[in-house]
Amino acid sequence: MLMETNTVQAAPAPQPSKSGLGIAGFVLGIIALAISFLPIINNFSALLAAIGFVLALIGTIACVKGRKSGKGLSVVGVVMNVIAFVVVLATQSMYSSAIDDAFSGTSVAPQPAAEQPATTAPASDDAAGDSQAAAAGNSITLKNGLVLTVDGVVTGLQSYDGKSITQVSVTYQNNGNSQASFNPYDWKAEDAQGAQRSQAFYTDGENELNSGTLAAGGSVSGNLYFEGDVVKVLYENAFIGRGSDVSWNIA
Predict the structure, then answer these.
(1) Is the residue at 117 inside a domain?
(2) Are residues 75 and 185 in the same domain?
(3) Which residues is 41 bridged to in the sheet?
(4) Of 35, 115, 158, 196, whose CA is between 20 and 30 Å from 58?
(5) Dihedral of alpha carbons 171, 176, 180, 185, sign
(6) Per-position DSSP letters for 82-141, written without gaps between them
(7) pLDDT tens by residue, 34-58
């Protein structure tokens, strides 16, 4: 007589779940790396990279101990966040150096009269001082070869709500060897009380200055519009937020 035997198979051990912290660190690493090249914004990238690194590292440790799966994703997250943080440090150093080079010395060139040939005045020893101001119609040359000119001023304009508007015409001339940027937010206006303002919205504006880059040898002109009466026009770098190094007295 044959006896029947029942074979009981052991249930497979449950697989550990994916590491949520590792996935979160990986996602933060992608975001941090994507914006690590952008000026100012990459300050936020550094914060994301620091948080992402901690999360991904904790996730990696959990995977190594066998409590969670997804070790590869966590390790990649650690690496990406480290790279993003290094890129932030490198780009900020590069941008800071470029701005310092551009503003470490300036020279003021008077606008030549119509009957005289154009000449360039030599830079004075104190031309790099923050208080250096030229008269309207004069050009200021930055060390990187970018020549800035306040061409003229129109007062007595009015906005749609009756506020006084002042028009300032400016020109960028790139005499350097590399590209240079231009932006209406490079400029501010100062009134007699010392209050400084950025460009105002003016519905009837013409030939308004836009933003972009100039190739070596290129030039661009445009108009800026400011609220109220203006006694001084100031130029500063829009991305770095550096204090105004050059200005024009227009009162």
Answers:
(1) no
(2) no
(3) none
(4) 35
(5) negative
(6) HHHHHHHHHHHHHHHHHHHHHHS-EEEEPPPPTTS----PPPPTTTTSTT-EEETT-EEE
(7) 888 887 787 888 888 899 899 888 9
Tokens standing for residue 91? 């780009």
Residue 54 domain flag: yes
What's the structural domain count of the chain? Answer: 2
pLDDT band at 19 (very low <50, low <70, confident <90, very high): confident
Q: Does residue 158 share a domain with residue 78?
A: no
Task: Give the separation between CA 251 and CA 191, rounded to whole angstroms.
Answer: 9
Co-location of 182 and 243 in the same domain: yes
Q: Is 124 inside a domain boundary?
A: no
CA angle 248, 173, 105 (to 5 degrees): 60
In this predicted structure, which of 84-88, 90-94, 193-197 has the lowest mean pLDDT? 90-94
The residue length of the chain stands at: 251
Which one of 103, 137, 168 terminates a domain? 103
Instruction: Give the residue from 233, 225, 235, 236 showing the smallest Cα distance to 249.
Output: 233
Report the alpha-carbon distance of residue 211 to residue 214 in Å, rounded.
10
pTM of the entire structure? 0.50
What range does the domain containing 34 cover?
Answer: 20-103
List of residues 6+ apart from 238 with CB closer than 8 A:
183, 185, 186
Q: What pLDDT was estimated at residue 31?
A: 92
The verdict on residue 229 lying in a domain is yes
- 3-class DSSP state for residue 153? strand
Amino acid in the structure at residue 133: A
